[in-house]
């Protein structure tokens, strides 16, 4: 007898879909998906059947496809099917056959769902599949998220058989004399999941005959713990990840107070591409000198004096460029540098990205370049020279920002302006200035 009542209750309790929704049922022809199709029909849901032929098992795969088609005809529902060249896809993308089949079927299911306006895609995973997934995730090291197993609902994907285990499904098939097809590859231990199914889980069931129900209880605990962690992380993101322009600042003192530090810091930085090894390395240098840099594929972490600075990597290369006499603008990294000539002396106020320089002191070609360790200049208001490295420290300019600051250099080698920060005392506009040139940095 089909457990229709338990089936509909599980769907309602987990808000998988509503009675009037259109359901696309993924049917391989195997025992699990056949039981799901029979339950959908018996419960009166509006559903269609979708079947993938991965062309990996010759005539057996064709037989599965034909069986699934006949099942759709029996239920008088629409049938969708497709043939994949799975081996070619796996070779082209340099992935395993199993991964290729997974990618292909999920992509196609979603395509069919959108084209025919299905509300959800129903998959026939059950409790034993959830156990296998957890064990696989544990061996692969997927962390806390991997412990929740297979969720009843994930976006448009729903799994209405998760209230049943494999023994339950076999009993339903036997009692109802339901026909299905057997995938011969399921008996092979060549694949990791099958190895767990045939060799590991039976041993675990010897230790605990109620393995499925024990795992189901544990799954709920794991999901609850994951929810608690996500709530805590959302709170920490609001409190600790402070946006400063294009950067995110994370207080070092606040990081030291995190408990558990390694887990929470990893989860905060994981979305930016940093792995656990990078987080371990970062924690190990929190009490050491600033200036350490850690990189992911798209972001970099800079250990500054009081903060950990998270910044997106830039593709701009800061190279030396020249400004020839008569030019009015040049591009430098993230900036456009413009030149404006004026006949009367002018002091630029309230704009740190603009400066006025005595035109008669300019020696062309001028140069714009990044700073070097040996650089020095005469800061505005001072009669003695200062090394740029000392100036940056006094101005508390983070290490990662220094290389992006453009230096305006005269033809005689003098640094006339540290772009956006300080003019050279020797190039300021004076009472004797007859003409000025205004240099302005404009962010591109």
Strand and helix map with partners:
Layout: H1 4-13, E1 22-26, H2 31-42, E2 46-53, H3 59-75, E3 79-83, H4 86-93, H5 97-115, E4 120-122, H6 127-140, E5 153-154, E6 157-158, H7 166-176, H8 192-207, H9 211-240, E7 242-244, E8 247-251, H10 252-257, H11 261-270, H12 276-284, E9 293-295, E10 299-303, E11 307-312, E12 321-323, E13 329-332, E14 335-342, E15 354-358, E16 366-369, E17 376-377, E18 386-387, H13 388-394, H14 399-402, E19 407-409, E20 415-418, E21 422-423, E22 436-443
Parallel strand pairs: 1-2, 1-4, 2-3, 4-6
Antiparallel strand pairs: 5-6, 7-8, 8-11, 9-10, 10-11, 12-16, 13-14, 14-22, 15-22, 16-19, 17-18, 19-20, 20-21
Please give the alpha-carbon distance between the first and last residues: 70 Å
Q: Kindly provide the radius of gyration, computed on alpha-carbon positions and rounded to a whole number of angstroms.
A: 33 Å
Strand order of the largest sheet: 3-2-1-4-6-5
Poorly predicted regions are none
The number of helical segments is 14
Strand content: 15-25%
Tally of extended strands?
22
Mean pLDDT: 88
Class derived from helix and strand content: alpha+beta
**Relative helix content:** 25-40%
Reported for the largest beta sheet, the result is: 6 strands, mixed
- What characteristic shape results from the CA principal axes? elongated
